Amino acid sequence: MSKPLRTAAALPFLLFALAGAAPDPAGRLRDAALEGDKVAWDIVEDLTTEVGPRLAGTEAEARARDWAVKRLKALGFRNVHVEGATMATWVRGAETAEIVAPFPQRLVLAALGGSGATPPEGLTAEVVGFDSLDDLKAAPADAVRGRIVFVGHAMRPNQDGSGYGYYGPVRRSAPAVAARKGAAAVVIRSLGTDYHRNPHTGLTTWGEVAPIPAAALSLPDAENLQRMLKRAPKVTMHLTLTPRFVGDTATGNVVAEVPGTDPSAGTILIGGHLDSWDLGTGAIDDAAGVAITAAAAKAVMEAGRPRRTIRVIWFGDEETGGAGSKAYFAAHKGENVVFVAESDFGADRIWRFVPGFAPAGKPLADRIAAALFPLGINRGTGEVEAGADLGAWVKAGVAGADLSQDGTRYFDYHHTPDDTLDKVDPAQLRQNVAAWTAMLWHVANAREDIARVPAAPAAP
């Protein structure tokens, strides 16, 4: 995979050599990162090795914040500090399941974040299956009450990861729907695309309903359960989940800056989230994201002081409710923030650049697109999201951009025990840093003002 990337990186050098000119600063920084960046890899390796899983609100996340402050200071960033927040914290307990009858065997599952608990000895109940959330919604309460509800779906791999958004309500909403109908517990087919016997955890939300036990089955176990439900008039499961809500605890965002030369030109916000789920070591979700953005900011910093201040934010509590980003937006929404971008989709190669500028920003978007094209990155169109942590700024009218990573294999590992360092490809990680560096240099040093994005016209 690294050979075509090196070939693409050599293209701008060849073109500029033929023209008798040197590459522009963004091109030089891009190509240096592509060939030699080690900052990002070292961050991912060290964070996953020295801290490991970093469930929000726990002692492990606190250790991660301490680690992050030391690392960002060592990298030369200025104004490194923690901005604290509080959150309602949930922690995992025991989690086991087995089919009691008619086909006795163990199942592999993981509690969903926010799950309620069974009694310590577990509970035994009949399983009722639904192929989709819509099927569950349409079911009468009598078909659900007192039973363990199983909900499936048909998520498949795709480059842009859109299946996660489409089928996400199965995890986020199905447990609450089942609880309102009187279910004893819920198990879902994991929101994943692998066929390893690894369950995918993730947050579920309850609204006003009291939490009931809720868990995700590995895909092989979910399909096995589906086969059982087709073969037998009654399937009985014994389920034990003992998570706990431990009250309000501390979380926080680690913030660092590259000071700009022109305070009136505004501030750029970039970053990812420092916390992770507790099953793996959080390598692709999201040690890679905080590493990519910090490495790019460091590369721009070392090239000379930029016009605009670059603020790197490593958010806390993205996975279990977003307390970090909510607190940050509330505290800073009055500042002159002119551009935001986030990395939170793993470490595989970036394939698309989607700009979100006002019409006057088209020349800047064009310059960025030209700098990214030698990396095999095409310009796309559509609504910019800017991630879960910075998306509120885009909704408020701040310019932003998405650098879309290839998500074909992302949901093989997402929220599983397999989210570990070996899933990060060093060459693809460098391509990410190269792309972020080129984009960041152009935005940070653009001579034109970066205008707010006009609101979309209301529907008639």
Task: List the defining traits of the structure above.
single chain, 460 residues, alpha/beta, Aminopeptidase, Glucose Oxidase, domain 1, eight-stranded mixed β-sheet, 15 helices, 37% helix, elongated, disordered N terminus
Question: What's this, in brief?
Answer:
With 460 residues, the protein is of the alpha/beta class.
Description:
- The chain has about 450 residues and is an alpha/beta fold.
- The protein has helices spanning about 1-20, 25-35, 40-50, 60-75, 135-140, 160-165, 170, 175-180, 220-230, 285-300, 325-330, 360-370, 385-395, 410-415, 425-445; strands at about 80-90, 95-100, 105, 110, 125-130, 150, 185-190, 215, 235-240, 245-260, 265-275, 310-315, 335-340, 350-355, 380, 400-405.
- The chain folds into two domains: about 1-90 and about 250-445, 3-Layer(aba) Sandwich (Aminopeptidase); about 95-240, Glucose Oxidase, domain 1 (3-Layer(bba) Sandwich).
- The chain is elongated.
- Residues about 1-20 have low confidence and may be disordered.
CATH class of the largest domain: Alpha Beta
Widest sheet: strand ordering: 1-10-12-11-13-16-14-15
Rg, nearest Å: 23 Å
Low-confidence stretches: 1-22
- CATH homology group of the largest domain: Zn peptidases
Note the beta-strand portion.
Answer: 15-25%
Give the tally of β-strands. Answer: 16
Note the main sheet: 8 strands, mixed
Q: What's the structural domain tally? A: 2
Described by the principal axes of the CA atoms, the overall outline is elongated
CATH topology of the largest domain: Aminopeptidase
State the helical fraction. Answer: 25-40%
